Amino acid sequence: MPASGILYGHPVSQPSRSVQWYLDYSGNTTVERKVVDFMIGEQRQPEYVAKFPEKEIPGFEMEDGFCFAESLAILKHVSAGDETMQPQTAKEEAILNEYLGRHYSQVRKFSSDVFVHHLLTKDEEKKQAGLVAIKPQLESYNEKLGKQKYILGDKLTLADFLFAPEVDQMEAVGKEVLAPYQNILKYLERLTTDVKGYKECIGGMRSGLEEMLKMM
Amino acid sequence: LKLQFLYFIGEHHTKLNKMPATGILYGHAFSQPCRSVQWYLDYSDNTAVERKVVDVLGGEQKAAEYVAKFPQHQVPGFEMEDGFCFAESLAILKHVVQGDETLKPGCPKEEARLNEYFGRHYSQVRKFSTEVIFAHLFAKDAEKTQAGLVVIKPQLESYNETLGKQNYLLGDKLTLADFLFAPEVDQLAWVGPETLAPYPNILKYLERLTSDVKGYKESFAGANTALGL
Question: pTM for this one?
Fold first, then answer.
């Protein structure tokens, strides 16, 4: 049975995008989606904090009111019934879990530093430091994506749903950030043409960002 | 008779899947993510996984032989019996624990809470604790150490509150979250005894692990010994 419940998120939040994209990809219409406007601090409102004490987005509420956060947890929950997203062997599982660890400690850590300092704190020094820190990651994934279609091989996995929204948002910093990484750019184009929901995912991010910038 | 035979075969296959993990764990006794895995192996009495020390203080993780297996020169690293190699403590822990029913989430909610912790572990607990330990032990930068302790304070306060109400991180049952969390937090004591003093429930939790959970005492002692503390 497809997952049901409520996803709380925002179209500019990379981890929210990961989950929203998967829901679109899988044709899920039973998870209700609610926008949490973090630009006006909606995630700190008592009603939201009562459900998600750490005030994080995305957040997920099961049908019985059980709430939890973290994109990894939500993505795994909503894809639990999708055999195409389950690792088939111990090695596939190891590679996926290896990426999940690296996603937080490397990819997301550095990309969110760059994005936050570019857009919100306007701290140019920290932004540049973030761009330097993320460079080895981008080089490494660029090399991989020159040899295979997706992050972990020639099969789409949950890793792609996590990776792409972190990396594509670098365009908000400037086209020059991803220009040296042609294989990553081709990968993102491939997702746009071949993977359901990705075009809307990145489109939603661009519109959401435009709205945010108008408010700032 | 046929039904009994089929039942036996089913049970036999189930038992095969519960064989202890085998392979080689590469790590170091003071590395928190290595400790997480080593502690689990001790806890589960696994003697089938060979353990090799990687002298990270001497740069052995950058040696050609190691990099050939683990291109990102990370510890811990795990090598399966057929030579397949992978890194990241989350991946290794999940691999070696596969046959252990006691540590598998029993329902979608338990699974969601565990995965929720995995996300927070990397983005908060480990991120902030390594900054403190690195600044204190290696950079010997007192200012950065203190700055790091300020950053980790909300996490410690939150877990201190949680651990005032339950035995373990996610409830009254030991989970993989504890194997990841405890080695990150106990090492903060190296900064000084006052570091964890404001968090008595965390201290009681660590004492509980020491007395009740196999392998934990040796894990912390091993880290101290490795650093000559």
Answer: 0.91
